[in-house]
């Protein structure tokens, strides 16, 4: 199934609700911009279908769970990014500093530095 | 008015990359892009080496407008660089 299939909307909505419940139960806030939230959830869902786990939609995944463990949502970089930029890299999780416009507008650097890693 | 040459490294799943592609389409500006995550094997390795050379923080999308490199989708920066 892809984003063009008729059931895609239903799947995105269902997964969005799962993420909302998880965020609420762990005292985190999801991006309040519904249009943007949809794009993020679609990206997560695409990765979930491709790899079997929801790796960050804004990072290049290797496709092997052990190599991608740090970028499976919620990624290990979420909390330091929320602290420093008011949002995680993909913008799924945000805090008041982001929603008030004080932090995290535009692009933020990828704390993982995957691009600069040695790759075989 | 002639548009500058725009090339971008993107991810098919990345919301900012998709927002960038939508913005360019809405503005009617031609651009080339490569979805790095859809590449495999040697082709991916070779493209990622190219990406390494141009990016600082390597936040997608990595947009090259002539000699300028913009990382991430920042509409204000992009409009200025494209003189919109």
Can you describe what's shown?
The complex is a heterodimer of chains A (120) and B (84). With 120 residues, chain A is mainly alpha-helical. In chain A, strands 1-2 form a two-stranded antiparallel ribbon. The model of chain A has no long low-confidence stretch (mean pLDDT 90). Chain A has 5 helices and 2 strands. In chain B, 40% of the residues lie in helices and 20% in strands. Chain B is built from 3 helices and 4 strands; from the N terminus they run βαβαββα. Chain B has helices at residues 15-27, 41-54, 75-81, and strands spanning 6-10, 32-35, 62-65, 68-71. A 4-stranded mixed β-sheet of chain B has the order 2-1-3-4, with helices on one face. The mean pLDDT of chain B is 92. Chains A and B meet through helix 2 of A and helix 1 and helix 2 of B.
CATH topology of chain B: Glutaredoxin
Element order of chain B: H for helix, E for strand: EHEHEEH
Oligomerization: heterodimer
Poorly predicted tracts of residues of chain B: none
Mean of residue pLDDT of chain A? Answer: 90
Tell me the CATH architecture of chain B.
Answer: 3-Layer(aba) Sandwich
Shape of chain A: globular
Widest sheet of chain B: strand order?
2-1-3-4
Q: What structural class do you assign from the helix and strand content of chain B?
A: alpha+beta
CA gyration radius of chain A, whole angstroms: 14 Å
- Helix proportion range of chain A: 40-55%
What is the count of DSSP helices of chain B, taking H or I runs of 4+ residues? 3
Specify the overall morphology of chain B. Answer: globular
Short description:
The complex is a heterodimer of chains A (120) and B (84). Chain A has 120 residues and is mostly helical.
């Amino acid at each position: 199934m892809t984003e063009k299939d008729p059931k895609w909307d239903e799947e995105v909505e269902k997964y969005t609700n799962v993420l909302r419940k998880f965020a609420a139960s762990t005292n985190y806030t999801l991006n309040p911009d519904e249009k943007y939230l949809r794009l993020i959830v679609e990206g997560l869902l695409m990765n979930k279908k491709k790899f079997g786990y929801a790796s960050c939609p804004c990072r290049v995944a290797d496709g092997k769970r052990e190599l991608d463990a740090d970028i499976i949502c919620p990624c290990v970089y979420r909390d330091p990014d929320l602290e420093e930029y008011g949002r995680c890299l993909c913008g799924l999780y945000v805090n008041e500093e982001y929603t008030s416009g004080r932090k995290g507008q535009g692009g933020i650097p990828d704390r993982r530095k995957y691009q600069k890693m040695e790759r075989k | 008015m002639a548009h500058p040459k725009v090339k971008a490294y993107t991810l098919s799943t990345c919301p900012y990359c998709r927002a960038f592609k939508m913005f360019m389409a809405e503005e009617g500006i031609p651009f080339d892009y490569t979805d790095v995550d859809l590449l495999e094997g040697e082709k991916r390795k070779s493209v990622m080496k190219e990406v390494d050379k141009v990016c600082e923080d390597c936040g997608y999308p990595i947009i090259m407008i002539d000699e300028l490199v913009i990382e991430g989708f920042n509409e204000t920066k992009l409009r200025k660089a494209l003189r919109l």
